[in-house]
Write a structure and sequence with these properties.
With 87 residues, the protein is α+β, with helices and mostly antiparallel strands. 38% of the residues lie in helices and 21% in strands. Strand 1 and strand 2 form a beta hairpin. The chain is elongated, with a radius of gyration of 26 Å. The protein starts with a helix and ends in a 12-residue tail after the last helix.
Length: 87
């Protein structure tokens, strides 16, 4: 009986493994037809507005300007003390 149990266990593990691989491959397919994500690089800024209201009169509104230039966007994450150009 242990040979049958081992075969059955191996079969179940194989089915579960095949199912996991199938799910991962299905999720990895691009739903957007290969179009690039995000915004196209360029000049200027994209404005993002977020509103919050607590429902009892409080809340706030925040508008962020995100640069479209990838280099300028990357410079935002450099600490202020390291932003000067080093030659």
């Amino acid at each position: 009986m242990s040979g049958l149990a081992a075969t059955l266990a191996a079969l179940i593990v194989g089915v579960l493994l095949a199912r996991a691989i199938w799910i991962l491959r299905k999720e990895a397919q691009q739903e957007d037809g290969g179009r690039p994500r995000g915004i196209a690089p360029g000049t200027g800024y994209t404005e993002i507005t977020s509103d919050y209201s607590s429902g009892v009169g409080g809340g706030n509104q925040l508008t962020s300007r995100v640069p479209k230039d990838p280099q300028e966007y990357a410079r935002v994450f450099v600490p202020r003390r390291d932003r000067e150009n080093r030659s």
